């Protein structure tokens, strides 16, 4: 364990909070006590202190069950991702498996999950609680994640969602840098409820079916709630929308893959045409073949004849992999939840909770490509060190194609076996949760104190089954010496040259495994909390909360044995396993400074501190300070300053080497669509790149992995704002109530755990030739990147700031009914990310990069109406204009605004959602609700830097995204 650099200081400050401040308060004169409160005293997210009435010093956004149902959505992740302060995060619109590979964080692909990002600081910097207790991080069967999968929590069990968009490490510990999402479950429920959901997109696909059941009772001493939930979401395929039906919008197949059903074969041989491969007249030409057979041609009864059956490979021969992808991945989620509470007496109650949730999801990608030879760029020796024997019965050239030894002549064979079908990745993710605890209160003199102890065990385990991938070791044997293949049980010689349909079932049986990966995370938690009023001060009671928390994290990722052995043709990975624990203590004080008088109604100072002792890196102390000034009944000022931290996750610390295939443009190479190289020619030559060398594929394999020397991220957060509820707009003829809230926020993050943006690293390598950037990048003899290392480090800093401006207006009830207006806005004014060596990262307000966006302005406007049994709503969601840099293969697209500079504008986008409902007096009520999200079928702006489907799936609705739904809700 590494000693903490801040250990001594942390203890000193901790002691000052735990000892000095209560001592200072104890010196004050006691005042008459207030009436004692009860166990029903409220505790809200953002404070541990329980009060009968409290308005938080920090802005907490509450989504009631009514708010949730108004969205027409069936996933908690989808609901919170529509908040104006939310950033880019995974959801079921990401068809991850087979397309994105492993991130450097060791957290895998996250296929089928739904996460939440606040303030654009990343999902791993948001703490997710359920009833105030931490929820386990996700397992996606491809790594050990650092974020929570919200699809592990059924939406049907949710009473409300409280979102704190402020640093809260002093109250909740690690991860609460950007904020906290606290999911409050249904509890005091009487009777039964049955809910049926059905919906589909306007194109007739993406059908959604759901069923929820709830039942509960309340007595004087006990209450019980039971809930069941089932959601079945059908897929939407990329081929069924114009924008996503090709790899890059506007380019047809020209921006597709060089791995085709007919194959692309690049090699040197005297029979090949003389080629000026480097643009240097002083160097001799080489005899280079870059050939294929005509699209769709097949030679089932014999090999193609060389050279007469072959043609030069060109853009028209590329493969349209987009036809196999998904715009919306299918997902089935089944959940059961129950909680029981029993009051032993008026002052003590106990509870037990249990949850089981299963998510079954699927990703699909195009038939897996085979890249063989020195230029394969896979980092796998079985594919890069290969000989296709001249004796192989399907070799049409009459000589060995080899990447090994002094006679090496093979750069790349790129063949896509469509005979094996698309890659299918099926995930089964099981989540279990059990918790029990005691809560109580007692009186000491004229004051009431509250206590609770809680014990919870939470496990998330995932299995993924992959069909349609290949065993590259078996491929290596099948194309090699036939005698060696014949001596190997099961080996069948493989035909890579005959065109589509010539890889037989017997060949597929030899090279096609079923790949099974597993991962698991466990979180064990014990907490004890104590709160109340210590005594009266001159301006009111000194309130406090204190507590202890113990957590143990365990996780592993176990890829299939053929992956561990290095035989898997897809993205490579190795096992990951790790664990750590943490002991924490905290104290929070609310100190009244001024009572009602010349300086306003009240002024309260809040102080909080938490000391965390980690088994991995030592101790960390995080304080928080806040002021709440109730200037008048209608005007509140509030401000907070907080320090926070995030401990590196199991995947970040212990993640083994793995591979990601990223969408990158090599500045030294001609793009796949023929645009010239943009990098410094002399520098590219120094890197071993011949002039005129071309990039074979838009995806480049990048090697990633964890780092056990990582330190915690540290953060500072500041908020300031006001709440104005004018008396002249309360109880007036035109207004029942009007609230205006403004909050300024600023977050500063140091030592961010991440890898440098891979495109930025590649660009800086070409610009500077600095070993810091070039050290992990190697190239083949003809210039293509053959290996690329991109490892985690405490990268540098992120600074972001902005404004939340919200309006809430309730109109008086009239003969027309009652209207409510809610308008919520977020402006991001700053976002600067700087790497450890000072390199500027590309993310900025108003910029789209790496499949994520930071809109300068996000806005949600909702008009709600109720009249007798009728209710309706209209919601407007707005995303401001964004700017992106067109990837090299998209410069010639008609959608790229400026091919010279590469700049492209993503126009402002506004969606309209409507809903109408009627309540029938059947039993305790039958509510029928229908709605349309994206009423006018607004397509997302085309994205020419995005990896998949031609749009940003984390920011916009899918193309052709008008969604119609119907819900029936029966209470009895």
Overall residue-averaged pLDDT value: 90
Shape: elongated
Enumerate how many helices there are, as a single number: 13
Distance from N terminus to C terminus (CA atoms, Å) equals 57 Å
| Classification by helices and strands | mainly beta
What is the helical fraction, as a range of percent?
under 10%
Radius of gyration: 30 Å
List how many beta strands DSSP finds.
47
Strand content: 35-45%
Low-confidence stretches: 1-41
Assembly type of the chains comes to single chain
Largest sheet, in brief, is: 22 strands, antiparallel, barrel
Secondary-structure blueprint:
Elements: H1 7-26, E1 60-64, H2 65-71, H3 76-80, E2 126-130, E3 133-134, E4 158-164, H4 169-172, E5 179-185, E6 191-201, E7 208-218, E8 222-233, E9 236-237, E10 264-268, E11 274-275, E12 286-292, E13 311-312, E14 326-328, E15 331-343, E16 348-365, E17 370-372, H5 381-384, E18 387-388, E19 401-402, E20 410-415, E21 423-444, E22 447-467, H6 472-479, H7 482-486, H8 505-511, E23 515-537, E24 540-558, H9 561-564, E25 576-594, E26 602-614, E27 618-632, E28 635-646, H10 650-654, E29 658-663, H11 681-686, E30 699-704, E31 713-724, E32 737-750, E33 753-754, H12 758-768, H13 771-774, E34 777-779, E35 785-788, E36 793-794, E37 797-810, E38 818-834, E39 847-849, E40 852-854, E41 857-867, E42 870-879, E43 882-885, E44 903-906, E45 909-920, E46 925-933, E47 963-971
Parallel strand pairs: 2-5
Antiparallel strand pairs: 1-4, 2-3, 4-5, 6-7, 6-47, 7-8, 8-15, 9-14, 10-12, 10-20, 11-12, 12-13, 15-16, 16-21, 17-20, 18-19, 21-22, 22-23, 23-24, 24-25, 25-26, 26-27, 27-28, 28-31, 29-30, 31-32, 32-37, 33-36, 34-35, 37-38, 38-41, 39-40, 41-42, 42-45, 43-44, 45-46, 46-47
């Amino acid at each position: 364990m590494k000693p903490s650099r801040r250990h001594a200081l942390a203890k000193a400050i901790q002691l000052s909070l735990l000892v000095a401040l209560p001592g200072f308060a104890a010196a004050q004169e006691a005042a008459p006590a207030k009436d004692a409160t009860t166990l029903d005293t409220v505790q809200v997210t953002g404070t541990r202190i329980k009060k009968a009435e409290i308005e938080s010093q920090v802005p907490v956004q509450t989504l009631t069950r009514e708010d949730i149902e108004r969205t027409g959505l069936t996933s908690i992740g989808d609901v919170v991702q529509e908040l104006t302060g939310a950033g880019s995060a995974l959801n079921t619109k990401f068809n991850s498996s087979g397309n994105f590979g492993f991130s450097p964080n060791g957290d895998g692909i996250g296929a089928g999950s739904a996460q939440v990002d606040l303030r654009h600081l990343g999902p791993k910097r948001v703490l997710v609680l359920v009833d105030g207790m931490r929820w386990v991080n996700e397992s996606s069967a491809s790594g050990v994640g650092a974020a929570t999968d919200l699809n592990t929590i059924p939406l049907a069990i949710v009473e409300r969602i409280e979102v704190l968009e402020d640093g809260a490490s002093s109250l909740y510990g690690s991860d609460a840098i950007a904020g906290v999402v606290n999911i409050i479950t249904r509890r005091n429920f009487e009777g039964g409820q049955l809910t049926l959901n059905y919906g589909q997109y306007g194109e007739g696909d993406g059908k959604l079916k759901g069923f929820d059941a709830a039942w509960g009772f309340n007595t004087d001493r006990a209450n019980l709630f039971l809930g069941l939930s089932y959601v079945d979401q059908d897929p939407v395929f990329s081929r069924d929308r114009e924008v996503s039906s090709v790899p890059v919008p506007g380019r047809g197949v020209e921006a597709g893959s060089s791995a085709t059903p007919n194959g692309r074969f690049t090699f040197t041989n005297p029979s090949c045409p003389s080629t000026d491969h480097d643009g240097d007249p002083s160097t001799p030409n080489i005899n280079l073949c870059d050939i294929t057979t005509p699209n769709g041609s097949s030679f089932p009864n014999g090999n193609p004849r060389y050279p007469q059956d072959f043609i030069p490979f060109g853009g028209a021969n590329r493969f349209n992999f987009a036809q196999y992808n998904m715009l919306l991945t299918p997902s089935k989620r089944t959940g059961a939840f129950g909680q029981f509470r029993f009051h032993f007496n008026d002052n003590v109650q106990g509870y037990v909770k249990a949850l089981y949730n299963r998510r079954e999801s699927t990703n699909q990608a195009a038939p897996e490509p085979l890249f063989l030879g020195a230029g394969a760029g896979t980092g796998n020796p079985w594919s890069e060190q290969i000989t296709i024997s001249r004796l192989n019965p399907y070799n049409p050239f009459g000589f060995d194609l080899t990447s090994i030894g002094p006679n090496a002549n093979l750069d790349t064979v790129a063949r896509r076996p469509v005979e094996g079908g698309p890659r299918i990745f099926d995930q089964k993710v099981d989540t279990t949760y059990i918790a029990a605890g005691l809560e109580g209160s007692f009186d000491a003199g004229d004051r009431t104190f509250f206590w609770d102890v809680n014990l919870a065990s939470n496990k998330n385990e995932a299995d993924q089954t992959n069909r349609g991938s290949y065993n590259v070791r078996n491929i290596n044997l099948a194309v090699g010496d036939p005698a060696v293949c014949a001596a190997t049980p099961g080996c069948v010689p493989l035909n890579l040259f005959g065109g589509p349909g010539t890889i037989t079932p017997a060949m597929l049986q030899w090279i096609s495994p079923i790949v099974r990966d597993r991962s698991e995370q466990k979180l064990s938690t014990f907490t004890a909390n104590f709160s109340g009023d210590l005594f009266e001060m001159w301006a009111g009671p000194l309130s406090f909360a204190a507590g202890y928390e113990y957590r143990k994290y365990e996780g592993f990722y176990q890829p299939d044995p053929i992956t561990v052995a290095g035989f898997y043709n897809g993205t490579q990975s190795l096992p990951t396993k790790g664990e750590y624990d943490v002991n924490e203590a905290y104290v929070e004080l609310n100190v009244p400074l001024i009572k009602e008088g010349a300086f306003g109604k009240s002024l309260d100072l809040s102080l909080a501190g938490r000391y965390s002792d980690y088994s991995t890196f030592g101790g960390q102390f995080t304080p928080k300070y806040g002021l709440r000034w109730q200037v008048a009944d209608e005007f509140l000022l509030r401000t907070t300053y907080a320090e926070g931290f995030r401990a590196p996750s199991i995947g970040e610390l212990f993640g083994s080497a793995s591979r990601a295939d990223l969408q990158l443009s090599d500045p030294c190479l001609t793009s796949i669509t023929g645009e010239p190289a943009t990098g410094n020619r002399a520098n590219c030559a120094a890197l071993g790149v011949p002039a005129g060398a071309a990039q074979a594929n838009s995806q480049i394999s990048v090697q990633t992995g964890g780092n056990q020397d990582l330190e915690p991220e540290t953060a500072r957060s500041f908020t300031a704002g006001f709440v104005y509820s004018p008396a002249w707009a309360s109880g007036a003829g035109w207004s029942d109530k009007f609230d205006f809230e403004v909050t300024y926020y600023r977050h500063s993050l140091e030592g961010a755990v991440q890898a440098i943006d891979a495109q930025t690293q590649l660009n800086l390598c070409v610009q500077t030739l600095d070993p810091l950037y070039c050290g992990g990048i190697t190239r083949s003899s003809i210039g293509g990147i053959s290996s690329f290392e991109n490892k985690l480090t405490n990268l540098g800093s992120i600074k972001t700031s902005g404004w939340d401006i919200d309006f809430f207006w309730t109109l008086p009830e009239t003969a027309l009914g009652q209207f409510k207006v809610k308008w919520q806005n977020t402006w991001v004014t700053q976002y600067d990310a700087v790497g450890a060596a000072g390199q500027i990262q590309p993310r900025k307000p108003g910029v789209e990069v790496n499949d994520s966006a930071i809109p300068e302005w996000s806005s949600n406007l909702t008009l709600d109406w109720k009249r007798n049994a009728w209710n309706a709503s209209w919601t407007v969601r707005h995303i401001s204009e964004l700017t992106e840099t067109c990837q090299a293969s998209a410069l010639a697209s008609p959608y790229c605004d400026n091919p010279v500079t590469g700049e492209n504008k993503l126009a402002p986008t506004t969606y309209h959602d409507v809903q109408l409902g009627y309540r029938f007096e059947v039993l305790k009520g039958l509510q029928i609700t229908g709605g349309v999200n994206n009423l006018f079928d607004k397509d997302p702006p085309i994205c020419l830097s995005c990896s998949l489907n031609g749009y940003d799936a984390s920011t916009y609705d899918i193309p052709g995204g008008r969604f119609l739904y119907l819900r029936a809700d029966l209470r009895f």
